[in-house]
């Protein structure tokens, strides 16, 4: 008898609806109703930059670009970011899914489904919320600075004793673009205001001094370039503090891959360059080696000749134990050279490059020799 009485007491009815109660005198449904999983207000205003799609949140402009987001999805990403900040989670193990119900020009109605538990002893359930999002458009700080021509630093790229080649200009511009995009999320002023490309070289007007220095470090290392930082006084701030603007000059070496230099008085062909390392082929010693700008040998380096000064030959006569005969492709002069000067297998008809220095003819490596 006692047992039965207890059972009846436990299953006392929900004081709101009369169904059996499970928690705090309420059934699960009534408990859930009084304890929502989330709190979100509606309508919400979304202020977006019309140029770049950044959105304004309580702690400032939040960028969404730079993640390879397709243009059509920008609105969805903006809404997700805004809701992420606007939803207050109250329940346990809450997950949220979004569904656009209606999209108008400046208003989107979103159905938000929250799944979770209002109390750990209860089973998970779904709650639906209709949220209206009103779009407003403006200009973010970054786009405002950029359109106003703002820049903190200038990066000038030149080459030593020659003009920059078109290939170099293309590669430099690509690197500037890639690094700027990569740093845009963490640096509000990571943008290039303008680029001046003329016969002297390229000047990049850089929004942030940090970015400019980073780019300069990169080029210095990649191209084994010389670097000069110049600070120029541009005015005084309020209170008399002097204001400087930095210009960084990056001077690419006279030589590039394929050109000839003298190192320790030996003629060398440049095989590869980059990351603080120059890889050369010593035409006298017939060996490959690497040097970096801090090594003692680097100071002996002199420009010798551009790649275009090499001569092209075709092997015309070749038999073991005999000198090799080859013919200049331009003036048809036939020359004889010792077989031992060739590092790789040759056959009649092969195209060979050689560099003539004074009376000496140096056979160059085949381009394929260094690949792989
Ligand atoms: Zn109830
Ligand atoms: Zn913007």
Task: Write structural notes for this entry.
- By secondary structure, the chain is of the alpha+beta class.
- The chain has five domains: 1-34, no CATH class; 38-141, no CATH class; 149-252; 255-309, SH3 type barrels (Roll); 310-364, OB fold (Dihydrolipoamide Acetyltransferase, E2P) (Beta Barrel), CATH 2.40.50.
- Helices cover 18% and strands 40% of the residues.
- The chain has six helices and 23 strands.
- Strands 10-11-9-13-12 form a five-stranded mixed sheet, covered by helices on one side. Strands 17-16-15-14-18 form a five-stranded antiparallel sheet, with no helix packed on it. Strands 21-20-19-22-23 form a five-stranded antiparallel sheet, with no helix packed on it.
- The protein is elongated, with a radius of gyration of 36 Å.
- The termini are far apart.
- The protein binds zinc ion (2 copies).
- One zinc ion (ZN) binds at residues 14, 16-17, 19, 26-27, 29-30.
- One zinc ion is lined by residues 49, 51-52, 54, 140, 142-143.
């Amino acid at each position: 008898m006692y047992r039965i009485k207890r059972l009846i007491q436990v299953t006392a009815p929900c004081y709101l609806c009369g169904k059996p109660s499970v928690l705090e005198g309420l059934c699960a449904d009534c408990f859930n109703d009084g304890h929502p999983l989330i709190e979100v207000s509606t309508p919400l205003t979304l202020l977006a930059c019309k140029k770049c799609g950044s959105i304004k949140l309580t702690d400032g402009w939040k960028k969404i670009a730079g993640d390879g987001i397709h243009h059509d999805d920008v609105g969805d990403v903006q809404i997700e970011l805004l809701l992420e900040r606007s939803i207050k989670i109250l329940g346990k193990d809450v997950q949220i899914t979004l569904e656009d119900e209606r999209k108008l020009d400046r208003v989107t109605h979103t159905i938000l489904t929250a799944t979770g538990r209002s109390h750990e002893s209860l089973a998970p359930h779904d709650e639906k919320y209709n949220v209206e999002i009103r779009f407003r458009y403006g200009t973010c700080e970054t786009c405002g600075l950029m359109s106003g021509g703002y820049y903190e630093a200038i990066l000038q790229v030149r080459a030593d004793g020659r003009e920059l080649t078109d290939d170099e200009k293309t590669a430099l511009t690509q690197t500037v673009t890639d690094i700027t995009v990569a740093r845009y999320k963490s640096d509000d002023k990571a943008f290039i205001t303008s680029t001046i490309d003329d016969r002297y070289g390229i000047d990049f007007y850089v929004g942030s001094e940090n970015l400019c220095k980073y780019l300069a470090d990169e080029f210095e290392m990649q191209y084994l370039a010389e670097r000069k930082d110049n600070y120029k006084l541009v005015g005084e701030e309020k209170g008399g503090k002097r204001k400087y603007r930095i210009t960084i000059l990056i001077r690419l070496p006279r030589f590039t891959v394929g050109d000839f230099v003298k190192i320790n008085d030996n003629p060398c062909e440049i095989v590869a360059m980059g990351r603080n390392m120059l890889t050369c082929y010593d035409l006298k010693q017939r060996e490959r080696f690497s040097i970096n700008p801090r090594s003692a040998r680097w100071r002996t380096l002199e420009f010798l000749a551009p790649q275009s000064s090499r001569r092209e030959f075709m092997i015309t006569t070749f038999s073991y134990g005999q000198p090799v005969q080859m013919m200049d492709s331009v003036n048809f002069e036939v020359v004889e050279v010792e077989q031992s000067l060739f590092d790789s297998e040759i056959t009649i008809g092969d195209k060979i490059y050689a560099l003539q220095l004074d009376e000496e003819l140096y056979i160059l490596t085949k381009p394929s020799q260094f690949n792989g």
